Amino acid sequence: MATPNDLLGILENLDDAEFKKFKWFLQQAEVLDGFPAIPKSQLQKADRTDTVDEITDAHHKNAVEVTVKVLRLIQKNDLVQPQRICKAKFKHWREAK
Q: Which CATH architecture has domain 4-96?
């Protein structure tokens, strides 16, 4: 699983409006393609560190996949570059072995 620090580093690259959209999409089960939505009540006042906790609690080993999916939905493809997420995916792969 990606470390919370890996995910926090990605979320810190979002401005406030992008971060608000990011949290909104996390609440929309229909766009998460089979991943559970995070209830609005858990994200409404969440800052970036709280949001990382919510993502990792709700999605465990799929935290990186969900994060990438939402980043694409908010058109932040620059944050989906392999050098940004490869480290997190590699850590998950090594822990799964």
A: Orthogonal Bundle (1.10)
Q: Give residue-wise pLDDT tens across range 11-38.
A: 999 999 999 999 999 999 999 988 999 9
Residue 50 φ then ψ, to 5°:
-65, -40
Cα atoms in the 13 Å half-sphere on the side-chain side of 76 = 19
What is the spatial distance between Cα 41 and Cα 9, in angstroms, rounded to a whole number? 24
| DSSP state, residue 97 | -
CA distance 68 to 85: 8
Whole-model pTM: value is 0.81
